[in-house]
Amino acid sequence: MKTGNEVGQRKAAVLVAGSWGTALAMVLSDNGYQVTLWTRNESQAEEINTLHKNGKYLQDCLLPDSLSASNSMAQALEGAELVLFASTSSAMREIAKQAAPYVSSDALIVHATKGFEGDTLKRMTTVLSEELGRPEETLVVLSGPSHAEEVAKRMPTTVVVASADQARAEQAQDSFINNYFRVYTNPDLIGVEVGGAIKNIIALGAGMSDGLGFGANAKAALLTRGLAEISRLGTAMGANALTFAGLAGVGDLVVTCTSNLSRNWRAGHKLAQGIPLDEVLEQMGMVVEGVKTTKAARYLSEKYNVEMPIADQLYSVLFEGCEPNTAVNRLMGRGRTHESEQVAQDWGLHQS
Q: What are the GO MF terms of this UniProt record (predicted)?
């Protein structure tokens, strides 16, 4: 672990103080940063500052002394050399707009949000670029297989930071990497963002599959064909297909589809038990990004003329009243195809 003496007392701001933002704030704090978490909730800020806990999101975790909280945006961002946005996708534009007047012109901007803007279908870097007045190519996205609860316990975790600007990607890598949090760089910002967002849809399906009592056979097929849908859409949007064979693709897909720490898996599991969507979301108590992303994927697949049968059937379950078992039967009854041809198509390969 790095110490403050090694890196100096650099300042970082993390917006907002949810589970993922708090876990990443702990990583930065362990690496010698003086970190301020921004939250709208005054009582949450007081709890973090006095008890060194964020009970709603990371109940059993003691936060380091070098991590504080504020409900003042100006105070949180004052002197911050690194600004990390970790809000929900639906709140990103509003929060970026509030932050814009206080973000230093030379601050490193990183986001760790997995989703699209609901009404515009824009990626989070596009939203940040528009609101902060920064070229999209200078922004960094952090993604990969990472549950906040495990990162907060300092369990070994490996992620990727992506930017078209290699120097900024390496700057982010240096800021986050330590002996329990390994960080790779990747130039494919689009691919990393698409992989992180769309895997949440497949995780909803994985939770449904488990909730219906299906076995490992079904799960393996779902992950494999789900990864194909992610790659298909991502490459149509301009991503490199190889990105989806890495941490932001198959890595994130596996962890989100196989762990009950995943909100999306838990939501899908509840839906399979016949609990209505509104009630599921109320029980979860936190945002389930896969639900909104399923709606975004429907429109993106139409926009880019990409076939996404798993996402389509999940859309039917979530928004059209389709029973989960019916959706499975529709998927299993699809027309025949040759796998080698399908894989080549999905991954942008050319067969000889």
A: glycerol-3-phosphate dehydrogenase [NAD(P)+] activity
